[in-house]
Amino acid sequence: VLADKHGNALWLNERECSIQRRNQKVVEEAPSTFLDPETRRAMGEQAVALAKAVKYSSAGTVEFLVDSSKNFYFLEMNTRLQVEHPVTECITGLDLVQEMIRVAKGYPLRHKQADIPINGWAVECRVYAEDPYKSFGLPSIGKLSQYQEPLHVPNVRVDSGIQQGSDISIYYDPMISKLITYGSNRAEALKRMEEALDNYVIRGVAHNISLLREVIVHPRFVQGDISTKFLPEVYPDGFKGHNLTDLERRQLLATAASLYVAEQLRSQRFLGTPRIPIAKSKRSSWELSVHLGDGIYPVAVSKDGSSFSVEVDGMKLNVTSEWNLASPLLSVTVDGTQRTIQRISRNASGETSIQFLGTVYKLQILTKVAAELSKYMPEKAAEDTSSILRSPMPGTVVAVSVKPGDVVSEGQEICVIEAMKMQNSMIAAKTGKV
User: Fold this and answer.
1) Predicted pLDDT of residue 363
2) How many Cα neighbours within 13 Å face the side chain of 147?
3) Which among 18, 61, 152, 262 is least surrounded, fewest beta carbons within 10 Å?
4) DSSP label at residue 373
């Protein structure tokens, strides 16, 4: 709502904020897919009546709970702008901060209720420094070693207060930025959000882009079937990342293998003509073994002009790209399907991390000979740390539930660590003595 000191007040339509984790919003949009014009008007009039009753003057946010029958119930009023106010600005064309300043200086509102439109659709994703694979978002700290906002994507707005090199510390909320997209309709706004998330480069801390992307493309969300229980209902066993279809798996394998070959060719160009006679012959085909998850896949790559012909699972795919290997972003087309991928890392043992469809996949790409030899490499046993209590992040110990000499059982709380506006209960991994 927007109210002045002269008794005028307006409602600026609604924002849908049901996608939440830990009772905190992560995806918001305006307008809502659920409200009809009658319910919208009734809620707006109630919000304005509340503002006038308390002689409110400024921008404010009135929150309601709405049930499946469109009955709505007053929750609270926040006497300020909220994090997701940009989506309201997008669909109304109003600069809410400017309007707040005008009201504070004593000016009357410049608009009537009939002047407040709903033009198009806007979606906001809250980009957090957190690991979505742990309780939908365990906060992460660190330095942003690489940071690139997707501002080249049309109709994208990013509200942030950080830059490359900034520290994400334990002292504040882990939000990195607000990512907003706008379209003439909801489908267009969501498609732009999908593209923006794929083109958002964040290195140095864990982030929730994989979760955000999965939410906005999920059939239930696309249909507008959402509630505050969306995340636990859709992911009852916790978030696991994108589940690749067979086609997507082949696209990822073909892309990773082509990227490997492109890097090999770049190395050859950089090193120049070798002096070893057998190495002087120019290769045009490669037989590779690609490890992905629990599978090992033979992949054959041959250079075909400026593109690669890749055989995976007995199927041939054409992979094209400009192969700008200096950029963290790569636009790759596989059999006519364009994907924006991110190469996260690669080491000498052939292990490569690639962000594909929002999720980071770890692959190991080996030549046929290296794959055979790797069978004889000893596997390093994982260190047993079950007797050690290790905090997932730095923080303040606010409670200790045991003392030296106590016998604790598996799952028992040992202490509580507070950081980034959250309390984490540290539990024993097994039965033992403190």
Assistant:
1) 96
2) 22
3) 152
4) H
CA distances from 372 to 25, 264, 289, 375, 376 (A): 49, 20, 9, 6, 8
Contact, 418 vs 396, CB < 8 A? yes
Active-site annotation holds for 248: no
86: pLDDT confidence band, cut at 50, 70 and 90? very high
The active-site residue, picked from 38, 76, 379, 383, is: 76
Mean pLDDT confidence for 124-151:
94
Residue ranges of alpha helices (H) inside 83-185 are: 85-92, 96-104
| Residue spans of alpha helices (H) in 134-279 | 186-198, 209-217, 219-222, 230-234, 246-271
Torsion region of 62: left, alpha or beta (phi above 0 gives left; psi -120 to 50 gives alpha):
beta
Nearest to 239 by CA among 266, 218, 257, 224: 218
Q: How far apart are CA 271 and CA 62, in angstroms?
A: 64
Q: Is the dihedral of CA 183, 187, 10, 79 positive or negative?
A: negative
Ordered domains of the chain (ranges, CATH): 2-234 (3.30.470.20), 246-374 (3.30.700.30), 396-433 (2.40.50.100)
